[in-house]
Amino acid sequence: TPLFQGVVHESVVPSLVKKGDIINIDVPIHHFGKLNKSKLQEKEFFYERLGENKTRLSKDYFSYYELGRQYANNGKLNEAIVELQKSISLKNDFADSWFVMGTVYMSIKDLNLAENSFKMAKNFNKDDPDIYDNLGVLYAKKNNFENALNNFRIALKLNTRSARTLWNIGLLFRKFGKEEESKYYFLRAAELDPNYKNIFNKLSNRRNT
Predict the structure, then answer these.
(1) In 3D, which of 123, 143, 117, 145 has the Cα closest to residue 134?
(2) Could you tell me the pTM of the whole model?
(3) Can you give the pLDDT at residue 41?
């Protein structure tokens, strides 16, 4: 039986990797702990304190990455950059640190540094659809339609059931005045995720008023 291990996150991934023979199945798992927002916030800051303690005990790239990711999740973006830079300095080819760094730079609207970070992440992990999806969003912000669409298409090829990517493609077409194309992708996203269906209905109601 896989066991939880590690002092920061409730994850069975390390022991699953040791066990081997991991099979992907299409079964949704609900994180009921996220239903209580006050408890969730308390939990996130508890993770942050655990992460800080862990980096004092174990100054390795993954500890700094975990703390950087937690800082980013808690909105402490400058602190996140510092920890992620420490992680990258110890293991430059760890794609996850570059990826989170890219999301942080996107949050502070430094699109050039975000682009560089996502490209570095892609260099070390060419099969992660989230990297291409974020590059698509980035190029859309830069008004680069072709690059945005190309990256979204790669993301969708890697994960054909990504409602987020389908929705982002819809937003891209809408931004550039292609209403019919945008509606097609919005509806595809809504078929996969009811949250997008609700958003699409609200958009439709606004147009009809």
Answers:
(1) 117
(2) 0.80
(3) 75
The Cα–Cα gap between 13 and 18 comes to 9
C-alpha atoms less than 13 angstroms from C-alpha of 52 in its C-beta half-sphere: 8
Instruction: Residue count of the chain, please give it.
Output: 209
CA distance linking residue 54 with residue 52, whole number of Å:
5
Detail the DSSP E strand segments found in the chain. none
Distance CA 129, CA 155 (A): 4
State the DSSP code for 143.
Answer: T
Query: Mean pLDDT of all residues in the chain?
Result: 87
End-to-end CA, the chain: 56
Residue (of 163, 137, 156) closest to 148 by Cα position:
137
CA atoms of 189 and 153, how far apart (whole Å): 14
- In angstroms, the CA 72 to CA 129 distance is 20
The answer to whether 186 touches 154, Cβ cutoff 8 Å, is: no
